[in-house]
Amino acid sequence: MNLEGVEKTMLLTIYTKAKHSQEKNHKFYDSKAIEVISKIDYDFTMAEKDKMMQMGVIGRTIVLDSMVSEYISKHPDCTIVNIASGMDTRFNRLDNGKIKWYNVDLENSAKFRLEYLPDTERVTTLAYSAMDSKWASEIEASEDMLFIIEGLTMYLTEQDNSEILRIIDDNFDSCTIFTEIMPPVSVENTKEVSVEETNSEFIWGLKSGRELTGLNRHFRWVKDVNLFDGVNVYKPIYRLFTWFPLLKKRMDYIAVLEK
Hints:
Layout: H1 9-21, H2 31-37, H3 45-49, H4 51-74, E1 79-83, H5 90-94, E2 100-105, H6 107-116, E3 123-127, E4 145-149, H7 158-171, E5 176-181, H8 184-189, H9 193-196, E6 220-226, H10 228-234, H11 239-242, H12 245-248, E7 253-258
Parallel strand pairs: 1-2, 1-4, 2-3, 4-5
Antiparallel strand pairs: 5-7, 6-7
Pfam families: LCM
Keywords: Methyltransferase, Transferase
GO molecular function, one term: methyltransferase activity
């Protein structure tokens, strides 16, 4: 496949979405993920065994699907940019027939994606690093812009994350950002077997999305949405302990920024 390191994690996420979609009580259904996984020749043994990774991906998908769906309902003609998109299939789940969607990812990942998820009239894949400002010049901006940064920030340095915000800031007058952040305590202690198998490691995180304004003061922090909100939908019984403050502080969250 020629996928290396963090690039391989995109296979874990689409596998998890396909697997969950085939469960009896699935909370979202992703027919495209099922279709793609049926065509990929890859050993998903570790992903199958990694329940922590699966819980995180499912919880995150439930939360972000809800947030993005709400944004689309308020801005039906919006443009959405999915940074480090991997094999994400959210467009297929949430498309309203009007939105424009851009997937930005490394050249190798983008090529792999296009083998299984070809572009359409309203979906465009751009082969760039998130820290390469050239991708921004290829975006046909609209009045309502949403940037999704999912499953990326924890693998980058603070300087890299700051650069992504700078690129968005320099090229778009107004926008909303949904970005997944891992708390520092989890960066240091989280062990996901299937992620480690890809030779990837978590290296950066923040206690609150409010701290992102320290990287770029042109953005306003709106709120943080804990991914346990999605886990509790997936497994309602988890509500018995996910309210516990110390545990909640260890879970990833979606920071919402506006400009």
